[in-house]
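FIELD: query
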Amino acid sequence: MKAVVIHAARDLRIEERDIEAAGPGQVDVAIEAGGICGSDLHYFNHGGFGAVRLREPMILGHEVAGTIRAIGDGVTTLSVGDRVAVSPSRPCNACSYCLNGQQNQCLRMRFYGSAMPMPHIQGAFRQRLVAEAWQCHKIADGISINEAAFAEPLAVTLHAVTRAGPLIGKRVLVTGCGPIGALAIIAARAHGAREIVATDVMDAVLGTARLIGADRTINVASDAQALSVYASNKGYFDVHFEASGNERAFRSGLEVLKPRGVLVQLGLGDDVALPLNIIVAKEIEVRGTFRFHEEFDLAVDFINQRRIDIRPLLTEIYPMDEAIRAFELAADRSRAMKVQLTF
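FIELD: result
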């Protein structure tokens, strides 16, 4: 089979790999769609992110869906021919965090396409993937394989909503409208947000934000003062989903959050200086959010039932042999929201 392998920054290759056989409790999936994620782009452009660096060749990819071609012994819930979204999260279910219901914090997590451990965890941008049956979630008839490949990033934002708490009737700010910020808008609307305001520095992505459910969008590059009107009377928003990883966005959110508001940090970035006086005086809660666990099943249900529509977020689809072109487009925020590969 062919696989998309990163060797170093800007060194992306299509290579041959052996096809594995499905063992007991496993299934062999023919991967048909895979979305390029921000972490994939970090490996492609920079060879890693933060302290995480490539130390050996690694297959990229973790947002995937496909069709089951073979099943191992003991698999009773899936059949050959089933179309499935594959969760890339494989916790050990035995460490103290897993046993406490915090599988996303697993001490021995095996998450597809991750250079955190050594040897690296190989990813899912390949023509065939052997996965545990419990990782695979059936796709409903009428749902495209490309929609199904959105389950993973949608699960990320559903976990962020879990961290935020109930959103019914809440006023929500989303800063950064890339794929995760856009899906945060969709997730917040699905969970009953009363009003959603979204900010970014690019008009193209803000147009998409309006299309998928934002009540108002603000380009903070061309109209830097527009958000400040929400700072009167100690703030306006109940919840802030910060998806840009930008210190200015973080600070601006604290200024417009109500007292006892919640800031959920989705975006990764460099260390920032915390304005402690604002956090203390307004009793703001700053919460991190990392990956997901049970939310993957909910994400597939949302997609299967068309309770949400993520189709406006799909910009382009490339064959895997044109992976470099696909990655270059995915890195251009002025032209792309989500780019997928087909295998």
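FIELD: remark
The radius of gyration is 20 Å.
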